[in-house]
Each structure stands twice: as C-alpha cells, then as structure tokens.
Amino acid sequence: MPNIPKMQKAMVFDKPNGPLEYRDIPVPTPGPDEILVNVKYSGVCHTDLHAWHGDWPLDTKLPLVGGHEGAGVVVAAGNLVTNFQIGDYAGIKWLNGSCLSCEFCKHGGESNCADAILSGYTVDGSFQQYAIAKAIHAAPIPKSCDLAEIAPILCAGITVYKALKTSGARPGEFVTIVGAGGGLGSLAVQYAKAMGLRPIGIDGGDEKAALVKKLGGEHFVDFTKSKDIVQEVIDYTEGGSHAVLNLSASSGPLNASVKYVRPMGTVVVVGLPPDAKISADVFNQVVKSISIKGSYVGNRADTDEAIDFFARGLVKVPIEIRPLNELADVFRNMEEGKIVGRVVLKCSD
Ligand code: 8ID
Ligand code: ZN
C-alpha cells in the first residue's frame, strides 16, 4: 500500500482575490465512494482565475484549493469503489460528482445536475498533492499517457471536444475558434482538425498566430490588427463560418460571432467572461436561421472520447511546466493574455 502522509502542500486562498498561499494542510480521507489521487500535475484553466476573482454568480467554498485539471495516481479508495485500483492513473475533472439519478444525469447531462459538485470550486481541487474525487466521475487515464501532457485534456480537452459536437459541424465545414491561442483554443483547433473540420483561429499576437497555424489552423485572424473581423471571416469562408466556438475569456468578440456565422450555422458559447451578454439582431437571426447554444464541460462518455483522441496522439496542447507555488504568477500571466497554450503545475514528485 502507498505511504500516505498526514500533511501536504497546497495552494489556498481564504477570500476572493485574497493572497494565494502555499500552505501545509491535512491530506483528506476519501469517503466510501471516493478515491484519493496523488496529483502529479494540474493544468491551470482560466476558470481557476475566475474562481479566485469571484467573477461568477455562484459562490466558491472558502478557504479554497482550486484546480480541476489534475492528473495523478490512485493511492486510496473507499470501500464502495469498484472502477479504480490502487496504482491506476486517474484524472480530477471540473465535474467532481453528480447525483446520477436526476432527469439531466439520466440523459447524459451530468454537468447540468443541480447537485453537481465542482473540483476547485465547491470542493477542493487539484492545486494540492492529494485530492479527492468521486470514483464514478473521475477520469480513467491509460497508463501509456504522460500525466503532465494529459492534464489539460481533463477540462480544456473535454470541453472543446463536447462543444465541437454541440456545434453540429460536419466534416469539411468551417469552424471558427475565438480564443484559439489559449488553453481551450489550442486544443479546439486540433480536435476540429482531427474531426475533419476546417479550423479558423481568432486571437491576438504573432506568437498565437504561429501556434494556431502549427496546430492545424487553416487561417488566423488577429483581433488586435484586423480592421474588420466579421468581413475577414466571411471572405475566407465564402459566406460565413458553419460553426463558431466562443472560447475567449473576454466578452468583446461575442456579438461579432453571430454576424459571421453562416446561414443555418451554430454559435457555441463556452467562455465565461463575467457579466457578459450575447446579443443578436432578431431579423438576421430569423432569416439566417442561426442557432446560439451553450456548452458546459462534458459527461463521462465525452471524457473517455476526448482522452482517446489524446491517447492516439491526435491532440497535444503545448505546455509549460511550473512549480505549484507559482500559481499567482501564472494567474498574472493569464490575465495579461501572455500564456500560449497551457501552464501545468507540478504538484508532486
Ligand atoms: O465548460 C465550459 N463552458 C468551460 C470550461 C472551461 C473553461 C468554460 N471555460 C471558460 C473559462 O472560464 C474562460 O472564460 O473558457 C474561457 C477560456 O478558458 P481558457 O482557454 O482556459 O483561457 P485562456 O487560456 O486564458 O485563453 C483565452 C484566450 O482568449 C483570447 C486570449 O488571448 C487567450 O488566448 N482572447 C481574449 I482574453 N480576448 C479575445 C478576443 N477579443 C481573445 N481572442 C479573440 N478575440
Ligand atoms: Zn477548466
């Protein structure tokens, strides 16, 4: 049996925007239906930054250990757990648990469950050495996978893969990815390509332009330079993009997307800027028969499928590995839009 310490290191904050402290806290004990994961690596998602700022109309637990892209090794399991063995690789996802018996869970809408518990938000997450997950929702990770490289799949990968399915775009069609150089975006470009779609990226700066092209983006629109983003997308796609994924953490680009989407196309809203609104001209919406849909992480089947794309080498986000106690710096860089791809924190040896 693994030797589990009583105390561990974690990044904790006590109030929104309060100091992010590298602290010694107790190692939690898993309940009967839970596993304890020795977290090796955790991606930093923009959602973690929103949580720290208290951006959303949903309170976090306090004090809070954030993080929901945790990849590690199962070191303990409750007596009801049948789907994980000690030593297996497991992923801590945003959706830590859900009731599995409500209308939404029964239809695969686990993320829409009213009783869902959220890693790094309503329960402590993966910015620590040992984290708890409900076994039934934890992601099984094949032993062939590198735990640092797979970490971003556990939120960003699942989310964009699901959003692409939600868009209804078919092979050969254009999908415009807003925020294409970020964590979600750089994976969306690759999933889109792997699914036979034609990705167009929108983001800012030459570094992100180069990345998007390298990952398979067919065209890049720089929002900091373009004189007319809407016209540029319409021209390139000869009539509009069949689908749009809004992955940006700012609300600025939302309203443009309903203008450059193709007639009968779909705008998928994924990014969660605080207090944002999306507004569409009703005449345009009706005569072009445009759909606007929200998409929120993914269920267990989406998780397995998203991981399978990774395991087969079809998607790989560029990562920068940094120590767990540098979280505050990572948040600062993220706020400045300077992170290209994903930062992954090393949580344990
Ligand atoms: O399930 C969900 N719906 C879900 C899951 C995970 C994350 C939603 N999210 C949300 C996050 O909470 C956040 O609001 O998606 C958003 C993006 O998360 P991220 O990819 O982790 O953030 P990032 O790595 O900072 O990338 C954001 C990118 O957007 C670009 C930035 O340059 C960056 O590359 N961007 C911005 I800010 N303004 C832009 C603009 N006007 C823009 N790109 C194009 N046009
Ligand atoms: Zn996330």
Automatic annotation (TrEMBL):
Keyword NADP annotated: no
Pfam families, A to Z: ADH_N, ADH_zinc_N
Oxidoreductase among keywords: yes
Cofactor(s) required, per the database record: Zn(2+)
GO cellular component, one term: cytoplasm
CDD domains found in the cross-reference section: CAD3
Highest taxon in the source lineage: Eukaryota
Gene3D superfamilies: Medium-chain alcohol dehydrogenases, catalytic domain, NAD(P)-binding Rossmann-like Domain
Enzyme Commission numbers on file: 1.1.1.1
Domain Enoyl reductase (ER): 18-345
Keyword set, alphabetical order: Metal-binding, NAD, Oxidoreductase, Zinc
InterPro entries membership: ADH-like_C, ADH-like_N, ADH_Zn_CS, ER, GroES-like_sf, NAD(P)-bd_dom_sf
A GO molecular-function annotation: alcohol dehydrogenase (NAD+) activity
Family, as annotated: Belongs to the zinc-containing alcohol dehydrogenase family.
Protein name: alcohol dehydrogenase
Organism field: Tortispora caseinolytica NRRL Y-17796
